[in-house]
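Lab meeting minutes (informal)
Scribe: AK
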Amino acid sequence: MNNKSNRRKFLTAAAALGAGSAAVSLPFVAQAAPAAKTPLAHHVFFWLKNPDSKEDRDKLVEGVKTLKNIPTVKELHVGVLANTEKRDVVDVSWQVSELMFFTDLAGQATYQNHPIHLDFIKNYGHLWVKVVVYDAMEV
């Protein structure tokens, strides 16, 4: 009976310890994600003058990546057309996109007039025939 008693005490203690550990870690698991610190998204789509030119596409991608050096650009994602399912709602007419995030409208305004952005337009603008911009604030 002594072995059963010791085993019961061990299992009870282990269960209590496990429950205590779970309770301590629960607040970290249950916490919501922190509020977004970059609520302004700036999404730009480029149509190349030579849409079949991999060289022009890669050159534009290179140029877009220089924009990450502007201090108010908090995140930059550069993309090319994905080979996903073709559907009526998917626009597959563009070649390069950039998605930037800013902390506020002032940061986006600073970006617009920043020398790096102006140099980007001057040095790479000859590659595109059309640009469409979508700016959105998180709600």
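Next up, CB showed the second protein from the same session:
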Amino acid sequence: MTRRISSTPGPSRSLPGATLLAFQRDPIGFVSALAAEYGDIVRFRLGSQPTLLLSNPDHIRDVLVTSSKNFAKGRALQRAGRLLGEGLLTSEGEFHRRQRRLVAPAFHRQRIAAYGERMACLAEAHQARWRPGQTVDMAAEMMRLTLRIAGDTLFGADTDATAAEVAAAMHDLLELFVLVPLPFSETLERLPLPSVRRFHAARERLDRIIYDLIARRRACGEDRGDLLSMLLAARDVEGDGSGMSDRQVRDEALTIFLAGHETTANALAWTFYLLSQHPEVAARLRAELDAALGGRAPTVADLPRLGYAEMVFAEALRLYPPAWIIGRRALQPFSLGGEEFAAGTIVLMSQWVVHHDPRHYPDPYRFDPERFRPEARAARHRFAYFPFGGGPRICIGESFAWMEGTLVLATLARRWQPALLPGHPVALQPTITLRPRHGLRMRLDARS
């Protein structure tokens, strides 16, 4: 017999908006406290919206995989359509499935390997500008590097001018994006505020850049081996054989550009922070790099010999998941864990909460790459670790991100030992992704 939603545990009703305010002030602390106090299914209201927080991997699998057709994207991704249009992050239903078929060839294994060689070259060039004893903000450094990689793989030869301009426009757009969960954000966007004016100007600037690039590429018809060439050449062979319109190419290009550098940059920045705090892990990583590479720069062919480097990156993704929460909205009534819930219910699933659950990870805040040995990984529930989501909407660039993270980590760590400056504050900034709030000021110590 199922229980009704009213019997599901959760905080008692408070003043209107109080829960939303608490979530806005400290979202990670808020969802962590709810899960710790009320368990695997927590009922509460986010503003006026009935909401569930799920922390059981079985329930998360049910929403993301088993019953995925009954759940649409949550409010944040719906509102992201104001920026990204109908890209893979924001589109739904049959249109999403068609777009995924069209974009998928750009992420096939052989194509990813070609991108990997460029990743390693660009990382090598980036670290060549560093100097022993230099102080850098590692978060900013990784943003610059992954921006260069995303621009190169997306725009090819046009990257220097285009990627930097796109990044500047993205910065202005993301300033307003933090207001997305608020129930009055649609009204806010219509007010003559400076941030709103910057938002509209930046979106117009992005459109001008991307549409001009698309027009020039269509005119020359050249395949430059980059993602943009793949998007322009894609045909829906399982459907009507047509390709993408200029608007669809624009939407997917912006989605790939944003997702392709923001998340990986944060993951790498947190990885170097963790290595600076755990010298024994850093020493083992360097030993692997010395044995596998013999002093030279890594290539894609070296990846099978960089197993510990991948484990280090995987553990950093567990401790500091760039995508720290996923939201879905129920299209029809549904049952979960023996309980019944109404259509329209918002379902939240937090990677931060699940990745720090001691049921899956003993001493969960300890940095331990050994958790990602193949046998340890196989013994855990698939959805005890889901940094890239899961089901039909799993990140299409997951293999791209694993390759980039491992190659960049190996390229930089073989020559440098970044050390966090004494007294530098380290705090979370959970917005679209999980950034270090104050950056990560580090001293670059060269390896002898």
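CB comment: The longest helix spans residues 246-277.
No objections, moving on.
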